[in-house]
Input
Amino acid sequence: DQQVKQNSPSLSVQEGRISILNCDYTNSMFDYFLWYKKYPAEGPTFLISISSIKDKNEDGRFTVFLNKSAKHLSLHIVPSQPGDSAVYFCAASFAGGTSYGKLTFGQGTILTVHP
Amino acid sequence: GAVVSQHPSRVICKSGTSVKIECRSLDFQATTMFWYRQFPKQSLMLMATSNEGSKATYEQGVEKDKFLINHASLTLSTLTVTSAHPEDSSFYICSARSTSGAYEQYFGPGTRLTVT
Output
């Protein structure tokens, strides 16, 4: 049961344009969501997170939007840079209970930013 | 800040031997560390949750006698793959959550295990 899904395996954008990475989830009880960036043979790097009580969080070039009714979140990168090329994972977790702190990851989306 | 290291970064071992992987939080204390496994072109799968001073909690389908976890201090957790087999070959990644209570987990660089 894939509770967190990233339906686009890859995305290609031009440098300077906006990159929009999407993520859907099925469990409405998730308390917060996170985006990670990963290069091959390296651990994920934390980018940005959002609590389920918010609908937007912004940090520099990265903005995460959460639509709870649609169980959908997206990561916007503006402007995109070639160095942003990597695999992006969204993840979801709970703030309490037996699953406290455990991250459930999506399948990842490969972002390629062309110069 | 929030640096997590793993050692070794790469290890090759023979079938039947055991391998220990260390995960350290370098600049913060972590009461909880997590161990993940990633197969090629797949997502990260949580294997177990490691709590300082107590037994690890394993996810369904993960053999606790095969993947021994010890969280001896607030900055160190170890994963030992016992009696390794070729199917255990994978990329193992740990993460740590700060005791400050923030949601973010910080990941180590990963360990590539190859069992021959």
Notes: Chain B touches chain A at residues 2, 4, 6, 32, 34, 42-46, 49, 91, 93, 95, 97, 103-110, 112 (CB under 8 Å).
